[in-house]
Structures are given as structure tokens and as C-alpha cells.
């Protein structure tokens, strides 16, 4: 074990005080780079590995499987996670990207129960994958044909992956300019390759023999390797054609040999290359099924993983460590709910991906501000390559970066591993461009693009999205800087070894200087982002001058602090993140959106906090002024005394030009509260809380509805943000309740206030419903029905729905 003990670490800290920040940063970075180097970072695969930040010469691999006993079973070959596969269940029982974990896949169509255990050496450089398969139904005759593919990418003159001879097991030796030398071995532990007992041989042509492992090495261009499934199917198709030709006809084909038809072989006489297929077709007629290991060992590591027992014990200790870490952070009384929470968090963490490639951006199409038709982004051009380390909303439907979702993912991840959350956030901040823009969806490279409907691949630098990353960063800073006093090098921690990378997760929390240093570095970039948002989403206030003069409020309005979402259409406001939430029925250039203003309020508050940490007093004052102006504008412009709620506004031209409030009770009216922008002593506070608690409007037995039951648009049209319950906003509401009513979290007994009851009730209802649905279907969902609480939208949505873990674990 590479170990620096705690005293050394304290010495490092001392050094940093003495002024060698760089050194300390290096130690921190090196450790995090190593522990997070390998992971199942191809989020869109059931299982696929690519290393993080290795872009020139990565080693990539993927796992596929099908039942080759069925004619055309190959058409149900699994590779990319797809809702249409109708898996009974899939996902991580337990996972931590630093440690590894266990994924289970129940594939009824292919009659197989697969467990995939992924573990790493303590230095993070070596890893092993144990694949275990068992039949689901013993009476159903089946095989499981497992296909592993792997490739050493990069210039073939300096990077290679070759099969070695004379080894007891299957061994590949690799060389990567970035990863150094390594070797891969694949060893069977249990089970047997398929062979019909009534036949002497399973061979039907040269290489077409399912009773043996098949291996094919070939050249595949790096950018095509993600099409491993298509390539495999094409080769099999050609192989079958070849066999048919040889045999003249398939009329008399002996069905007992079918699995051999689907065995990969070198029919084109291809020379070996850096891409490899390894196929094993296992007999599933035995309850024990099969098991094999794949091991990757780097020559740069002294912690080689060799034996079966070593892998077994790595798996056991990985699961142990995860459980211990989880229980240290989250307190959940019920064992069943705890397992639900562990699984849900693990699926959020198991969805974390590393993406690298070009992004398609349309910088020329202009949004005509008077027209509110859908704008086709037809001038997209490839830019980049860029890199992004991020979690994803759902591996099946949304395996890529989403700006609006990510801040919420981070709120969950930082509870478990602050350093990891920080790495993700920093990667997003890297994407902020010269103008200060970040794309709403980050879709890097062909593999990521292949999962996106064409109309959504192109991003426009005119379009914004709720800046949740700053919300998360602000939360992070609060944790770190509020925690300075908690750090001491006392005896109780002396046993810890900092060099044991699996113990990482809260170094930043224990060492605020690191994050301060980072904040200093990115401050200019965040400022650009902030200014970009303010500049591009600015509302038009002049149109209201006569109206507000007449109302007598013109002079008290802060004219710079009015905002709207650019790119809204008559039916949708995609930039707001709340797509079909009702807005003014007739779009108008003068419209001002209360949620856009609220989000700028949050950005401003975060900038203020960063300026404070960096001792930028003048900037801090400036942000404080803007924040206070925004809060005042929320009251003067958007508060409708008549309805007692926050509303969008527009100009009503029919009735002699007046301010018209567009009021639809729901998430938009709650945002100033949810984002803690209402002054604590404001009389509006009670009104908003009453609305939240109103069971005839928003408070359902399953959580807070996105739109009031009494609203004319409730449940209508696409019914996306028109009633269904979403975890992200429910989470913010809970958080805000605790902020406004500190008695909720106080340890005193005076907890029976209405706000405390509301908070309690809301979290209980959310937990009860999400858990109930999970127990019934095995999955978390994108949102939940306002009528009966059932899961709606995307299945296996462990993006922000995973915030239920914080709600469970903190209550
Ligand atoms: C960690 O990885 C990043 C991204 O590749 C790289 O820029 C940085 O130099 C690495 N840091 C250390 C100390 O190796
Ligand atoms: C799948 O296999 C694992 C062990 O490998 C077992 O714990 C689990 O119960 C099995 N699930 C089903 C549905 O058969």
C-alpha cells in the first residue's frame, strides 16, 4: 500500500501555509487522477470502460452478450443500455468510482442473470472485472454468448495490443504512449462452453466452433470502435453466408449446431490489429452457470492483481468499504430502505462518464426576437475536441452531460464524496468558452451523438439553462469554508493512511486552501459565464416605462435586473428547463420571467460568496448590491398581491397597455422561495408556504406538483411539467424550508410548528412514494404521477431523482 501517514499530510499542510501550494495541489491531483483513472465511464454501455483524461491513446473495452442458441438471437445482442431491452433489472447494487462495485443485470429475454464485479488495485492503476452468469429459468434451453471487445487506440506505430503465445490463459500485451505497458488476461473460473452432448464436434467450418473460445484481432479505426456491435453482427452475417455457400443450402442444417453459426471468426483473412473480439459461449443448463475474470495490470504499478483469490478478496473488501462509507454518511433505520438508497446512489455514481470528442455548435443562426416559432439550428459546425467528466440523468435515455441536471447531481454526490463532486464541477467549468457560454447539453463525439435525436444534437450559444452548477459550487464552498475549524491532526486520525486512495473523498473539506486556490483560478471564467448569462438573457424594461410610471413604481425598479429566457416558442420554454410549463399564452418580447430572474439571483449570490472567500471586497460589495436589487425586483415586478404569488409578467395590449401577471401556481411561483431569495421577514413567505401546503393545489400524497391541480393547464398537452412531481424542485423546497424555519433542524423539542410538520410530511411522502415505486418496478423514474404517484417518463432515472438519498439519509 502506498502510504503517507497523517503526520506527513499535516506536514504538507504546514508547507502549504508556508507557501508551497503548488506542491500540495500536485499531491492532491496526482492521487485523484490515479484513483479516478479507470471506471465504467462509458455511461451508455451496460458495461464499458475507458480511462479518464487519456485522450491520445486510451485503452477501451466493452461487454456484449446474446443467446446464440436461438436463430437470430443475435438481434437481441446487448451492448448499449436501452429501455426497449425491457430488462427486468439492471444497475449497480453498490458502486464507488474510486473503489469499484457490483452491477447486476436480469435479462429475461436472454435468460441470464449477470453479475459484473469491477474492482481496482489500491493505487488505482490495475483493475479486474469478474463476470458471473446464471440461468434465470433452468427449463429454458439457452446459451450465453459473451463478447468482450477491447482496443488500444492511438497511432499504431507507438500503441499496440497483441495476443501473446505460450500462455496458460488468454493474454494480451499492450503498449500505450499515455498508459505505458500493460497486460490483460482472461481466465475462466467456472462453467463450460456449449457443446451438444449428442454430437462429437460442434465445428461447422474453420473457426466456427462454439465449444471453444473465439478470438479475432483486426484493425478498426478508433472513431468506429463504439460500433463494435454492428461490426460483430456484420462479420457474423458474412460468416453465415460463407457457411451457407459452402454447404450449398441450410435446408438440412442441424439445429444442434446453431450456436456455432454465431461464433466470430476471421473470414476475410484480416491481419491482426489493435482491436480484439473475445467470444465465449457458455452452456446455461446448470444452476451454477459460468464465471470468468478479465484482469488489466499496468507495468507502472507494484500492485499486480494475479489470482482468483485476490480478486475475490478485492471484491469483498470493495463492497465492505462502500457499505461502511455509506453508513458513515447516511443514517437510514430501515434495512430495506437503506439498500434502496445505496442502490440509488450507486446508480448515480455508476452513471458517471468520461466523454471526449467534438461538439456540434451553431453560432450563426439568429433568433428573431419577435417570432416565437421553433428555430431550426441548421448551421451546426463541429468544434473541439472537448472533454467532460460528468454524471448523467439516465444511462438508457440521456447518457451525456446536462447542464441543468448536473448541479442537482452534485448536491447528491458531494454528500458522499466532496472531492469527486468537485472534479465533476471543475470539468464543467473547463467547458465555459471565451464568451462565457456552456452548452445546455454536452454531446461529445459520435458515440454520444448516436444516442441523441438529430434535432437535439446542435447547441446554440444564444441558449441558456438554469445555472445550477453555481448553486452546487456555492454549496461546496459553504461546506469547505465552514469546516475549517473541524480539521485537526489529533491522535484519533493517526491510523488513517492518506496514501490509501480508497480513503479519499473529503480532502477538500479538510483543506480549504485547495478549493480557495481553485476558486482564485476560475474566478475570471465564472465571471465571464455570469456576464454572458446576464447579457444574453436580459429582458426589455423600456416597454414598461409608461405603465410603471403610471403605477408609480418606475423609479424603484432596478432596470438592469430584469430577465427572460431567449429561445422560447409559443408552446415551449426549453431553456428554462421546465419545457412545457405554462407561460404567457401570447409570447411577447416584453415578457419577463420570474424564474430567469431568480436564477440570476443565485448566480449573483454565488459570485458574492466566491469574492468573499478571495477577499475581493469591492466585487463582493457589487454582487451584494446586485443581489439586493434582484430581491427587490422580485417583489416590485413579479409579486402579484392579488393572487398572492410570484408570476411572470408581460404587457397586455388589449386592455390599454398594462402589466399583466401570468400566474400559474407551481414550480415557477415557488422558485424565489426554493432558491432562498425571499427575505426572511417578508410577509410573502407565509403565502408561499401556504401554497406549498395546499392539498387542493400543490401538495399531493406523493410530493409537490409541478403545476397546481386547479390550473387550467394541469395534466394537459405533453404533461411534462404540468403536474408531474419532480425530485429536484421538491428537494430545493425541503432545503428552503429548513433555511427559513431553523427550528426544523434544531435539536430542541419545539419542532411542532406548521413549517416543521410540512417539512416532515413532505419528505415522508416523497420517500414513501419513490420507494414504493422502486420496490414494485425496480427503478427510479424521471418524474411521478400527480394522480397516483406511479413512475413516469424515463425509467431508471437515477439523475436528480437520486436526491431521495439525501432526503432519506439526513432525516
Ligand atoms: C491530473 O490530470 C489532469 C487532466 O489530465 C492533468 O491536467 C494534470 O496535470 C494531472 N495532475 C497531476 C499532478 O498529475
Ligand atoms: C442473480 O444472481 C445473484 C448471485 O449471483 C443472486 O444473488 C440473485 O438473487 C440472482 N437474481 C435473480 C433474479 O435470479
From TrEMBL:
GO terms for cellular component: lumenal side of endoplasmic reticulum membrane
UniProt keyword rRNA processing, yes or no: no
Any one GO molecular-function label of the UniProt entry: Glc3Man9GlcNAc2 oligosaccharide glucosidase activity
A Gene Ontology BP annotation from the UniProt entry: oligosaccharide metabolic process
Glycosyl hydrolase family 63 N-terminal domain mapped to chain residues: 35-251
Cellular compartment(s): Endoplasmic reticulum membrane
Origin superkingdom: Eukaryota
Gene3D superfamilies: 1.50.10.10, Glycosyl hydrolase family 63, N-terminal domain
Reaction catalysed by this enzyme: N(4)-(alpha-D-Glc-(1->2)-alpha-D-Glc-(1->3)-alpha-D-Glc-(1->3)-alpha-D-Man-(1->2)-alpha-D-Man-(1->2)-alpha-D-Man-(1->3)-[alpha-D-Man-(1->2)-alpha-D-Man-(1->3)-[alpha-D-Man-(1->2)-alpha-D-Man-(1->6)]-alpha-D-Man-(1->6)]-beta-D-Man-(1->4)-beta-D-GlcNAc-(1->4)-beta-D-GlcNAc)-L-asparaginyl-[protein] + H2O = N(4)-(alpha-D-Glc-(1->3)-alpha-D-Glc-(1->3)-alpha-D-Man-(1->2)-alpha-D-Man-(1->2)-alpha-D-Man-(1->3)-[alpha-D-Man-(1->2)-alpha-D-Man-(1->3)-[alpha-D-Man-(1->2)-alpha-D-Man-(1->6)]-alpha-D-Man-(1->6)]-beta-D-Man-(1->4)-beta-D-GlcNAc-(1->4)-beta-D-GlcNAc)-L-asparaginyl-[protein] + beta-D-glucose
Bilayer topology term: Single-pass type II membrane protein
Statement: the UniProt record of this protein carries the keyword Phosphoprotein: no
Domain Glycosyl hydrolase family 63 C-terminal: 309-809
Pathway(s) the chain acts in: Glycan metabolism; N-glycan degradation
Primary site of residence: endoplasmic reticulum
Protein name as catalogued: Mannosyl-oligosaccharide glucosidase
Species, as recorded: Naumovozyma dairenensis (strain ATCC 10597 / BCRC 20456 / CBS 421 / NBRC 0211 / NRRL Y-12639)
High-level lineage: Eukaryota, Fungi, Dikarya, Ascomycota, Saccharomycotina
Amino acid at each position: 500500500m502506498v502510504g503517507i501517514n497523517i503526520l506527513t499530510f499535516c506536514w504538507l499542510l504546514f508547507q502549504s501555509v508556508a507557501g508551497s501550494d503548488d506542491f500540495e495541489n500536485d499531491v492532491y491531483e496526482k492521487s485523484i487522477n490515479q484513483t479516478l483513472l479507470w471506471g465504467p465511464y462509458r455511461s451508455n454501455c451496460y458495461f464499458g470502460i475507458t480511462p479518464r483524461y487519456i485522450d491520445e491513446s486510451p485503452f477501451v473495452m466493452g461487454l456484449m452478450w446474446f443467446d446464440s442458441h436461438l436463430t437470430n438471437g443475435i438481434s437481441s445482442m446487448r451492448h448499449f443500455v436501452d429501455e426497449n431491452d425491457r430488462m427486468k433489472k439492471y444497475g449497480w447494487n453498490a458502486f464507488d468510482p474510486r473503489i469499484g462495485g457490483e452491477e447486476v443485470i436480469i435479462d429475461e429475454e436472454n435468460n441470464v442473470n449477470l453479475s459484473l464485479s469491477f474492482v481496482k488495485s489500491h493505487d488505482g492503476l490495475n483493475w479486474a472485472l469478474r463476470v458471473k452468469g446464471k440461468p434465470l429459468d433452468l427449463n429454458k434451453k439457452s446459451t450465453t454468448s459473451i463478447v468482450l471487445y477491447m482496443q488500444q487506440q492511438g497511432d499504431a506505430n507507438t500503441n499496440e495490443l497483441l495476443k501473446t503465445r505460450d500462455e496458460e490463459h488468454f493474454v494480451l500485451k499492450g503498449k500505450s504512449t499515455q498508459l505505458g505497458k500493460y497486460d490483460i488476461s482472461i481466465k475462466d473460473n467456472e462453467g463450460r462452453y456449449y457443446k451438444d452432448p449428442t454430437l462429437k464436434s460442434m465445428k461447422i467450418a474453420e473457426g466456427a466452433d462454439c465449444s471453444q473460445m473465439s478470438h479475432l484481432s483486426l484493425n478498426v479505426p478508433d472513431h468506429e470502435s463504439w460500433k463494435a456491435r454492428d461490426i460483430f453482427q456484420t462479420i457474423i452475417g458474412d460468416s453465415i453466408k460463407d457457411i451457407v455457400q459452402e454447404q450449398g443450402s441450410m435446408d438440412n442444417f442441424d439445429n444442434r449446431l446453431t450456436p456455432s453459426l454465431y461464433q466470430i471468426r476471421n473470414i476475410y483473412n484480416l491481419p491482426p490489429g489493435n482491436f480484439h473480439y473475445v467470444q465465449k459461449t457458455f452452456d446455461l443448463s446448470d444452476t451454477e452457470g459460468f464465471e470468468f475474470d478479465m484482469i488489466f495490470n499496468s507495468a507502472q504499478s507494484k500492485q499486480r492483481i494475479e489470482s482468483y483469490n485476490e480478486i475475490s478478496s478485492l471484491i469483498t473488501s470493495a463492497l465492505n468499504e462502500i457499505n461502511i462509507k455509506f453508513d458513515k454518511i447516511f443514517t437510514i433505520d430501515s434495512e430495506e430502505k437503506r439498500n434502496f438508497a445505496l442502490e440509488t446512489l450507486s446508480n448515480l455514481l455508476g452513471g458517471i462518464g468520461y466523454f471526449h470528442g467534438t461538439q456540434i455548435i451553431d453560432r450563426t443562426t439568429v433568433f428573431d426576437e419577435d417570432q416565437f416559432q421553433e428555430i431550426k439550428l441548421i448551421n451546426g459546425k463541429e468544434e473541439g475536441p472537448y472533454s467532460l467528466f460528468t454524471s448523467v440523468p439516465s444511462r438508457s435515455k440521456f447518457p451525456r452531460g446536462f447542464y441543468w441536471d448536473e448541479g442537482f447531481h452534485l448536491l447528491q454526490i458531494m454528500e458522499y464524496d466532496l472531492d469527486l463532486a468537485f472534479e465533476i464541477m471543475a470539468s464543467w467549468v473547463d467547458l465555459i468558452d471565451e464568451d462565457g457560454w456552456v452548452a445546455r447539453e454536452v454531446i461529445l463525439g459520435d458515440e454520444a451523438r448516436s444516442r441523441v435525436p438529430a434535432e437535439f444534437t446542435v447547441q446554440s450559444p444564444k441558449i441558456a439553462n438554469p445555472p445550477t452548477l453555481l448553486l452546487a459550487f456555492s454549496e461546496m464552498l459553504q461546506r469547505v469554508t465552514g469546516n475549517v475549524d473541524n480539521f485537526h491532526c489529533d491522535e484519533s486520525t493517526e491510523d488513517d493512511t492518506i496514501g490509501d486512495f480508497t480513503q479519499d473523498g473529503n480532502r477538500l473539506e479538510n483543506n480549504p486552501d485547495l478549493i480557495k486556490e481553485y476558486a482564485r483560478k476560475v474566478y475570471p471564467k465564472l465571471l465571464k459565464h455570469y456576464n454572458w448569462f446576464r447579457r444574453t438573457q436580459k429582458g426589455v424594461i423600456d416597454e414598461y416605462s409608461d405603465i410603471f410610471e403610471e403605477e408609480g413604481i418606475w423609479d424603484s425598479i432596478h432596470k438592469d435586473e430584469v430577465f427572460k429566457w431567449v429561445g422560447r416558442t409559443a408552446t415551449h420554454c426549453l431553456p428554462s428547463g421546465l419545457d412545457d410549463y405554462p407561460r404567457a399564452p401570447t409570447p411577447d418580447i416584453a415578457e419577463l420571467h420570474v424564474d430567469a430572474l431568480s436564477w440570476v439571483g443565485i448566480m449573483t449570490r454565488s459570485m458574492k460568496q466566491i469574492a468573499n472567500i478571495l477577499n475581493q471586497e469591492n466585487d463582493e460589495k457589487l454582487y451584494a448590491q446586485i443581489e439586493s436589487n434582484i430581491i427587490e425586483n422580485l417583489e416590485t415586478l413579479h409579486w402579484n398581491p392579488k393572487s398572492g404569488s410570484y408570476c411572470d409578467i408581460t404587457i397586455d395590449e388589449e386592455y390599454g397597455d398594462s402589466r399583466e401577471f401570468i400566474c400559474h401556481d407551481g414550480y415557477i411561483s415557488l422558485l424565489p422561495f426554493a432558491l432562498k431569495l425571499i427575505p426572511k421577514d417578508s410577509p410573502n413567505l407565509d403565502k408561499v408556504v401556504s401554497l406549498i401546503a395546499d392539498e387542493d393545489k400543490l401538495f399531493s400524497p406523493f410530493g409537490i406538483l409541478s403545476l397546481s391541480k386547479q390550473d387550467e393547464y394541469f395534466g394537459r398537452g405533453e404533461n411534462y411539467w404540468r403536474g408531474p412531481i419532480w425530485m429536484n424542485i421538491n428537494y430545493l423546497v425541503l432545503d428552503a424550508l429548513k433555511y427559513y424555519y431553523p427550528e426544523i433542524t434544531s435539536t430542541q423539542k419545539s419542532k411542532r410548528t406548521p413549517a416543521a410538520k410540512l417539512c416532515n410530511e413532505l419528505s415522508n411522502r416523497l420517500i414513501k412514494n419513490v420507494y414504493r415505486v422502486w420496490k414494485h418496478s425496480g427503478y427510479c423514474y424521471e418524474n411521478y404521477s400527480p394522480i397516483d404517484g406511479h413512475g413516469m417518463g424515463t425509467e431508471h432515472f437515477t439523475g436528480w431523482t437520486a436526491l431521495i438519498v439525501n432526503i432519506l439519509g439526513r432525516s
